[in-house]
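In response to the reviewer comment on reproducibility (Comment 2.3), we provide here a single inverse folding case reported in full, input and output, so that an independent group could reproduce the run without further information from us. The structure tokens appear first.
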């Protein structure tokens, strides 16, 4: 076990901008290293009768790849993001209404799902939607030597024997969602969760700093 990685996980440089699109009710761009995505939130708005849920809002997540049409991989990622958002949103405050989250890939250089999660959280914040907690996405790769790499780039992902993405909540650092592929032991899974929980502290601090910067300009 790499104790240095466990105590102080290394993440690529972050960048974020909120409220950059005029049409959505909330929007954000999020950058992790060379991976970059856009998120737009629409709603609460009127919902189609066929999709109406009488006691809470209906959340739809749409993921657009950089080129071409969305496929099976996008559908799987949509589900991961939707489950995370549904767990944090207080959707019972907006019954019989619709929320739509649109995610657009700008550039994919690894850890795309965690970048989507972080962008989604910032867009939901920008839209002013009520949430029980914030969430952060962290991707971990396990290389052929068994070392854990946090926030891997595309080349590191390709070389890895296992890849895991976790959504961590801001209040108790619980795992809200996990997406895994490859082969790993139970111990390695626990190690990656511990590293992700530690890494999420940096992401939540980044959220705080960027929101503080934004509102210090407007006040």
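Designed residues, in position order:
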């Amino acid at each position: 076990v790499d104790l240095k990685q466990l105590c102080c996980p290394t993440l690529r440089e972050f960048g974020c901008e909120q409220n950059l699109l005029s049409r959505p009710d909330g929007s954000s761009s999020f950058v992790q290293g060379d991976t970059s995505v856009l998120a737009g939130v629409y709603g609460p708005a009127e919902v189609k009768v066929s999709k109406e849920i009488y006691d809470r809002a209906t959340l739809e997540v749409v993921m657009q790849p950089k080129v071409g049409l969305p496929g099976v991989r996008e559908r799987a990622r949509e589900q991961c993001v939707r489950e995370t958002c549904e767990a944090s949103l207080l959707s019972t405050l907006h019954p019989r209404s619709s929320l739509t989250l649109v995610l657009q890939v700008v550039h994919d250089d690894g850890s795309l799902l965690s970048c989507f999660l972080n962008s989604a959280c910032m867009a939901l914040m920008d839209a002013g939607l009520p949430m029980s907690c914030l969430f952060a996405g962290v991707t971990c790769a396990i290389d052929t030597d068994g070392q854990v790499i946090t926030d891997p780039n595309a080349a590191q992902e390709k070389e890895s024997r296992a890849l895991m993405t976790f959504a961590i909540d801001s209040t108790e650092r619980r795992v809200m969602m996990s997406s895994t592929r490859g082969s790993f032991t139970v111990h390695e899974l626990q190690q990656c969760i511990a590293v992700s929980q530690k890494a999420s502290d940096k992401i939540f601090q980044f959220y705080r700093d960027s929101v503080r910067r934004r509102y210090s300009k407007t006040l």
